[in-house]
Design a protein that fits this description.
It is built from no helices and 11 strands. It is mainly β and about 120 residues long. The strands form 2 sheets. Strands 2, 4, 5, 6, 9, 10 and 11 form a 7-stranded mixed β-sheet that branches. It starts with a strand and ends with a strand.
């Protein structure tokens, strides 16, 4: 059973940075999970922000965050991250980490990111 726990959210001014972490309890080092970060702003649908694979190559970024956000992983620590730079007020949302393997998905509880103008 996989359990995910996010940390690193908070309040930051426009142009600031935050680093979100997702600890993956129960992740196997040999499964090529899809690692994803989603966000959901008030009144909006949840959207995919960035994704990468646990083992294989390939990274995806949504257009609004390209060049500002970086997804990365640390397999020995069983964690993955979202480095968010040059934050904008429109990045304000609850951010969720997600792991997907063979159609089974696991979600963290979310962490609030608020960017003040």
């Amino acid at each position: 059973q996989v359990q995910l726990a996010e940390s690193g959210g908070g309040l930051v001014q426009t142009g600031g940075s935050l680093r979100l972490s997702c600890a993956g309890f129960g992740l196997s080092r040999s499964n090529d999970y899809a690692l994803k970060w989603f966000r959901q702003a008030p009144g909006k649908e949840r959207e995919l922000v960035a994704s990468m694979a646990w083992i294989s190559a390939g990274i995806f970024y949504a257009d609004p965050v390209k060049g500002r956000f970086t997804i990365s992983r640390d397999r020995p620590r069983k964690e993955f991250y979202l480095q968010m730079d040059n934050l904008k007020p429109e990045d304000t949302a609850v951010y969720y980490c997600n792991v997907d393997f063979l159609g089974r998905e696991y979600w963290g509880r979310g962490t609030q990111v608020t960017v003040s103008s």
